[in-house]
Write a structure and sequence with these properties.
The chain is mainly α. The chain folds into two domains: about 45 residues, no CATH class; about 30 residues, no CATH class. Helix content is about 40%, strand content about 10%. It is built from three helices and two strands, in the order H-H-H-E-E. A two-stranded antiparallel ribbon has the order 1-2. A hairpin with a 2-residue loop joins strand 1 and strand 2. Helix 2 crosses helix 3.
């Protein structure tokens, strides 16, 4: 539905952040990073990798997604990457 000229589609603007919750979360950041750093040495490989990825994502940012070719409708996203999926041609179907 189009908006009327001169009228906002969101008259209240963005919702206000809860400053108290945000401040409380920030007060635990050092402890959280220290815990992740300790978990990097876990004997459970999945735990170790998850902790490493969390620290890298926060320290360096998440890796950019790469799209190869024209994604169109035939693309699916798998583990942060775009993979092109072509339907089989008629001569390949049996």
């Amino acid at each position: 539905m189009p908006f009327e000229p001169g009228k906002s589609g969101n008259p209240g603007g963005r919702p206000k952040e809860n400053a108290e919750v945000k401040a409380l979360a920030r007060s635990h950041c050092r402890t959280a990073v220290e815990k992740l750093a300790a978990l990097m040495d876990s004997t459970d490989e999945k735990t170790s990798i998850a902790a490493c990825n969390s620290i890298l994502d926060r320290g360096l940012g998440k890796p950019a997604q790469v799209v190869i070719g024209d994604a169109g409708e035939d693309a699916i996203q798998v583990e942060g990457r775009i993979t092109l999926v072509k339907p089989p041609s008629e001569d390949q179907e049996q």
